[in-house]
Specification:
By secondary structure, the chain is an alpha/beta fold. The chain folds into two domains: 2-154 and 348-361, 3-Layer(aba) Sandwich (Rossmann fold); 165-345, 3-Layer(aba) Sandwich (Rossmann fold), CATH 3.40.50.2000. The chain has helices at 2-17, 29-34, 51-56, 58-75, 86-99, 113-116, 120-127, 138-143, 156-161, 182-202, 215-228, 241-247, 257-264, 277-286, 294-299, 314-326, 328-342, 350-361, and strands at residues 25-27, 39-41, 79-83, 104-108, 130-133, 149-151, 170-177, 207-212, 234-238, 248-254, 269-273, 306-308. The strands form three sheets. It has a six-stranded parallel β-sheet, sandwiched between helices. Strand 3 (79-83), helix 5 and strand 4 (104-108) form a beta-alpha-beta unit. The two termini are 26 Å apart.
């Protein structure tokens, strides 16, 4: 969903620079609005992660791929703007390069091939015209392969500046952030409920709050909370994750963009993640990085504790929460580190800088 928001932000800026701009493609509801309804909304149907999960939807993706090629043939775009989603987008870019060699190929939100498939980088250098990356460490990685690369900064800097509120942290409040996809809720929220139950046994004055990304997820989580017997001390809200990140004393957060958001708001947190065992095993063979958390990758060292697969247990996560709630000095030191890492995300104006590069190609 964040890819949809980032693409829409770029397109809004681009419309102001290129008034007669015509947009076609596929993404989510925000892109559809910016394009005047001329892009398709795939965001929910396409939101799958993991090798096994993608294989289960192979026929669906194959059909969408063919549809997009037909649309590109009719539309003949001057620029193909690829946003995130590398499994689909890099294959599509290869097909477009063969069928429409005059179309310029620009990639926004660079795929994390530096983590899972460095061998793709030389191929991308021959395929793409420019890479627009979000993190400063990505620029030399792509440039060294011969790909024109611009570091535009991270759009979160702009988005979160508008979300900041003047509020004190509630010392007895713990935030639970299980993710924005149904699969993440199924994998992580039961563990978070178990962690909260253990922490309540430790301190009965603790309160917990969890924001639901969508009404559908709210219904699922409400039922899970009720079944766990925790409805009296876990508050479920429709949205409001950014406000919670500024009110809570600490948090438990699913790996993803939310971890960067929390760091930007100075929320001390630990990262948790689980996936299908087969997917995790295959992923370990492909991914060659020390950490999965973006904050730790940016810092080049462990700033945030990561609890992955079996380590993402109520006992281990609960022990971390107990420690961070009990040690004011450690909590404040973590907040300081998070602030230093967040500063590396760049200055405001990311969408505008990215749109300027696309406008140049147009």
């Amino acid at each position: 969903m964040s890819g949809d928001a980032h693409a829409a932000g770029l397109l809004r800026e681009l419309r102001a620079m290129v008034p007669d701009l015509e947009i076609r493609g596929a993404g989510g509801p925000e892109m559809k609005e910016v394009s005047g309804g001329l892009t398709k909304d795939w965001v929910e149907a396409a939101a799958v992660m993991g090798i096994i999960e993608v294989l289960k939807r192979y026929d669906w993706f194959k059909e969408r791929f063919a549809e997009m090629l037909i649309e590109a043939e009719k539309f003949a775009p001057d620029v193909l703007l690829l946003v995130d989603y590398p499994g689909f987008n890099l294959r599509f870019a290869n097909a477009i390069r063969k069928e429409h060699p005059n179309t310029r190929l620009i990639y926004y939100i660079s795929p994390q091939v530096w983590a899972w498939n460095k061998r793709r980088i030389p191929k991308m250098a021959t395929l793409l015209d420019e890479m627009l990356c979000l993190f400063p460490f990505e620029k030399p990685i792509f440039e060294n392969a011969g790909l024109k690369t611009t570091h535009v900064g991270h759009p979160l800097v702009d988005e979160l500046a508008e979300e900041k509120i003047d509020v004190a942290r509630e010392k007895k409040l713990v935030g639970l952030f299980p993710g924005s996809r149904e699969r993440e809720i199924a994998q992580l929220f039961p563990m978070m409920l178990g962690t909260a139950t253990l922490l309540r046994e430790w301190r009965t004055d603790l309160r917990f709050e969890v924001p639901a990304a969508t009404p559908m997820l709210a219904r699922i989580m409400r039922e899970m909370i009720s079944e766990s017997g925790a409805k009296d001390w876990i508050t479920l809200t429709d949205g409001g994750s950014h406000a919670l990140m500024q009110r809570a004393t600490c948090g438990i957060i699913a790996s993803g963009t939310a971890t960067l958001e929390a760091a930007s708001f100075g929320l001390p947190y630990c990262l948790v993640y689980r996936m299908a065992d087969t997917t995790y095993f295959l992923g370990k063979l492909l991914v060659k990085i020390d950490y999965i958390g973006l904050v730790n990758i940016l810092a080049g060292e462990k700033v945030v504790e990561e609890f992955i697969q079996a380590d993402a247990s109520p006992e281990k996560v609960g022990a971390w929460v107990k420690e961070i709630l009990s040690d004011d000095t450690a909590r404040e030191a973590l907040m300081q580190q998070l602030g230093e890492v967040s500063a590396k995300l760049g200055d405001p104006g990311t969408h505008r800088r990215a749109a300027e590069r696309v406008a140049e190609w147009l």
